[in-house]
């Protein structure tokens, strides 16, 4: 048995990789993850795609040690995906994913939250090598956290610990509804989606303020556009990213009070705006830390390749 299958199951696509023991991804495949309301149809599609990938690379199932899956709202203890609000086939139910997929493939299958998978990949292959206490913060469509304590992912009592993105940190600004249904979550302001919403909110609240964001239809504004305009010197776009960084820094200071990590490691699409985000994050973080933590924790950027990180991380569910 020489290989592991790592699967990065996202809200739009599932990326499937054959991973060697040394962390080399030998081959990849991608399928739609959100084009059916029936989870059995998706699992059948995933099994078919995995078999095709194996056949294309002259590898048989007996050479696969296990399948590791990173997916939103996953329960490591139960092997389930629970009420994953961004996935059509899983938003309103508990899906017994590893049970069905593992039996279909006749290969052991484990699942964990996608941010946990990124943290595990970071610990084994990335900048967190050698660290035993750190948190991986994924800044993408949402805000996810994988918490490593004493060298192990923290799963909590029910297998689902680490939803720091849904802490309610906003009390003073316009209340904003989060994808989880609550109001004022960190994710509603500091994810890529939240940054885009900040752009729309600013345009509506300050109709007379000049900004190059007005060239765009508000519905088309994305975090990427705001970053591009910020790089061109647009003051409003710069302020939106700086405000996002300040909120993150304050939230990270709160997190540090609970867990005292060696490092907080940032991963995901929004980190492309690091030149503006990072100074704002570190300034706010230092401002809100209490003295016993000052100068002890680091805020770092992930060194994992974005496309492969969750595949590699999920594969470590099997290899450890
Ligand atoms: Zn939320």
Architecture overview:
There is one protein chain. The model has no long low-confidence stretch (mean pLDDT 93). The chain has two domains: 3-121 and 307-319, ATPase, nucleotide binding domain (Nucleotidyltransferase, domain 5); 130-301, 2-Layer Sandwich (Nucleotidyltransferase, domain 5). The chain has 320 residues and is α/β, with parallel strands linked by helices. The radius of gyration is 20 Å and the shape is globular. It has nine helices and 13 strands. Helix 1 (39-56) packs parallel to helix 2, helix 5 (192-205) packs across helix 6 and helix 5 (192-205) crosses helix 7.
The level-1 CATH class of the largest domain: Alpha Beta
Number of strands: 13
Measured distance between first and last alpha carbons: 15 Å
Question: Number of domains in the coordinates?
Answer: 2
State the secondary-structure class. alpha/beta
Bound molecules: zinc ion
Strand content: 15-25%
Helix percentage: 25-40%
Give the CA-based shape: globular
Q: Which consecutive residue ranges, at least 5 long each, have pLDDT under 50?
A: none
Average pLDDT confidence is 93
Topology pattern, helix = H, strand = E: EEEHEEEEHEHEEEHHHHEHEH
CATH superfamily of the largest domain: ATPase, nucleotide binding domain
Widest sheet, order of strands: 3-2-1-4-8
Radius of gyration, taken over Cα atoms and rounded to an integer in Å: 20 Å
List the total number of helices.
Answer: 9
């Amino acid at each position: 048995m020489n290989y592991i299958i790592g699967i990065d199951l996202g809200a739009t696509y599932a990326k499937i990789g054959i991973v060697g023991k040394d962390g080399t991804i030998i081959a990849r495949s991608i399928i739609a993850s959100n084009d059916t309301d029936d989870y059995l149809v998706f699992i059948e599609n995933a099994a078919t795609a995995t078999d095709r990938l194996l056949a294309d690379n002259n590898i048989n199932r007996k050479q696969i040690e296990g399948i590791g899956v990173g997916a939103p709202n996953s329960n490591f203890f139960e092997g389930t995906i629970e009420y994953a609000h961004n996935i059509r086939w899983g938003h309103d139910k508990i899906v017994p994913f590893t049970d069905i997929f593992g039996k279909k493939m006749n290969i052991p299958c484990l699942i964990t939250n996608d941010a946990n998978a990124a943290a595990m990949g970071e610990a084994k292959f990335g900048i967190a090598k050698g660290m035993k206490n750190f948190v991986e913060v994924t800044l993408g469509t949402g805000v996810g956290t994988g918490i490593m304590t004493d060298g192990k992912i923290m799963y909590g009592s029910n297998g689902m610990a680490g939803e720091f993105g849904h802490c309610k940190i906003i009390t003073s600004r316009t209340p904003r509804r989060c994808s989880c249904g609550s109001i004022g979550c960190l994710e509603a302001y500091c994810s890529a989606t939240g940054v885009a919403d900040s752009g729309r909110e600013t345009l509506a609240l300050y109709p007379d303020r000049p900004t190059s964001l007005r060239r765009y239809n508000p519905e088309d504004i994305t975090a990427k556009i705001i970053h591009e305009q910020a790089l061109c010197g647009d003051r409003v776009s710069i302020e939106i990213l700086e405000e996002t960084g300040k909120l993150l820094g304050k939230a990270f200071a709160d997190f540090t009070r609970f867990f005292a990590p060696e490092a907080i490691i940032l991963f995901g699409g929004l980190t492309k705006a690091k030149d503006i985000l990072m100074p704002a994050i570190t300034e706010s973080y230092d401002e809100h830390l209490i003295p016993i933590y000052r100068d002890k924790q680091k805020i770092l950027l992930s060194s994992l390749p974005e496309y492969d990180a969750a595949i590699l991380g999920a594969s470590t569910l099997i290899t450890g």
